[in-house]
Amino acid sequence: MKLTVTPKLLDKESSIGFLLRLAQRNGYLSIQDLVNQSVIRANVPNVDPKSLSTFSQLANVKAYEYSSHELWKFTCSINPRICLACIKSAGLIHQTHLDATVYRCTKHDLNLVNQCFHCRKSLRWDIALTNGLCTNEECGKKLIQIDTTVPENLTREQVLDCLTMSHFISAPCSTYITQKKFVEIDDYALALENGYKVLTQKDIFVEWECRQAFSSADEYPSDLNFVSSWLVKKILRSNWPIHSIINPPKITKQIESKSEKSLWLNYNTATNILKMSRPDIMLLKEFGLIFIRGNTRLTLNSVIDISPIFRMLAVHSKTDSNLDTSIYSASLLMHQNLTSLADILIGIKNKRLNTRYLPSSDISSSLYVDMSEFREFCQEQLKDKMNLIIDLGEAVKITSLSNSVLKSIKKQGVIQSPRRNPYSDDEFCYCSDAIKIRDMNRVGQLSLALENY
Ligand SMILES: [Zn+2]
Ligand SMILES: [Zn+2]
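Above are the sequence and the zinc ion SMILES. Below is the predicted complex in structure-token form.
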């Protein structure tokens, strides 16, 4: 294909901008006529080459750094934004203006324009851009500057935060995230402005938080009602006024109806909020208390549904008056008996433990038990683990002795090293030995035994 006119590439011009100028100068009506569609089809799966699909090829994405951001792999923006002064002087679409963290042209001190003032339609990658005209065929008017209330000096990180917040504003109940390749925001200026407003005005943030809580199911404790707040705060990279809001607003709900709603969380969010380890999650899966999306193996990228836990708790909840101790307040007992929250949930499901479930701040302060029954349950859990090999950290929990004391006891041969761990003998022991040490220590026989060795 021979082109009659080949304009010079301008300094810092984006490839996509250059291609638009190339098409315009050679009399093409659309950029797709210029670019071989079969190439796009072959290289960019699942997208219609007539839409924005040309983007990753045309924008020369390699020129943009990898962002390591949870929402976007590259901070490159799919939707066009232009500096009207750059366009006016040379039809230039600057390379850096493709970066979503850039919202002003530093040369001209002007905000980039992403929308037509007249028809309010967002701009598309089209030849009209190089003439500073609206890309909506029915409008086609001259683009003009639109005012914004966002300060002029936001940092790159702050801009990313505002865009992140805007993502959560448009989807207030997102409980998990999937990373997209590029930033795709229809009305960039509005997204930036809305995100900024919510991050800087606490009352608006709280309002947003309440919206997510009311749409979540009755039977969830409040940390799960506010999982979007937790997520957004974790993703933000700068310090904002909303960070000083420590507790989410109090919302009192009655379990009126059992909802069938799923609660999908990223694996990391689930382990963090439920304070569970990987083996705990695996155990819950085995007992049908969580589902993995796509029914695949559990990985760091898994998205899991934890709603079956709460449906089960609502069903098994009893009203006995002696179920008056929250398992949160009995956490030391759990700790000493190597009893995890997962063990307890499975115990409830299998009717080995009676509980009353009243949604409160988190799951362990929402579960009430009878203390003596609970003690027995935890001790049985430890008995079940008798033959397991545990690490010294767990032995410390059982015995309440320090790591160094346990090591010296081991050296003296009171407890054996499991043969299965030849390389790290020091760090492991049998659970039964840890229980033996604990019992000896309780009746004052430990020091006696040590003297005899
Ligand atoms: Zn400019
Ligand atoms: Zn227009």
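The pocket of zinc ion (ligand 1) is lined by residues 83, 85-86, 105, 107-108, 110 (CB under 6 Å).
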